[in-house]
Fold:
Amino acid sequence: MSERPQLGHAGEDEGQPFLSHLFELRGRLLRVVFAVLAVLVALMPFQNQLYALLAEPLMRHLPQGATMIATEVAAPFLAPFKLTAVLAVFVAIPYILYQLWAFVAPGLYRHEQRFAMPLLVSSVLLFYGGGAFAYFLVFPLVFGFFTASAPAGVTVMTDMTRYLDFVLKMFFAFGLTFEIPIAVILLVRAGIIEREQLVKSRPYMIVAAFVLGALLTPPDVISQCLLALPMWGLFEIGLLLTRTPVVKTGAAPGTDPD
Structure:
């Protein structure tokens, strides 16, 4: 069986030294850092507006006259800055994955390249979709439930730093949850697990979805179900997509398998 192509630019000598790969990796990492910094600098003038937009799902459910509070001296600056920094990485994800792809792709077989590129694009879109699902559907329901559950005489005034930590946790939880179809496809295509095994383990997967929903979300049934049910549905979508025949590996580099 032929050896896998070397990492690096197409047309380079297959005996390219290991240090050359490290230099290329360093260059691509520097591009990623500069890209994130550029987005961060562009967004910083709007950091307060961005935080206000993030807080809107909670603010609309607060009692009249109630506001968010800052319990730390530097929180009015640090909380919006932290949000802007995370958002800069979030926005730069397509470019980050492009740099990763440009480094790894020359070391893949042609059929692996055709398989990996759609997965990368799909994973980005699914991650964004998970964040949008959390913001537009989950947050209004969860915050409406929480504020309505406050006992009489208690005014809900959430600390802005704690609110940011909470919503970022929810964003990443739903973003990663929406990657389940990609994970299922990779597990099956890589031969780590058979599709039939996943089908037989469906009841356990459903239980695991609700357990993870309870661990990753606040202790209420609504948010637990809003995470667990999409996990289950996305698992089923992954099973559906793995019905296509598995491409055989082992072909010569740069060629299609038989």
Q: What stands out?
A: Residues 246-258 have pLDDT under 50 and may be disordered.
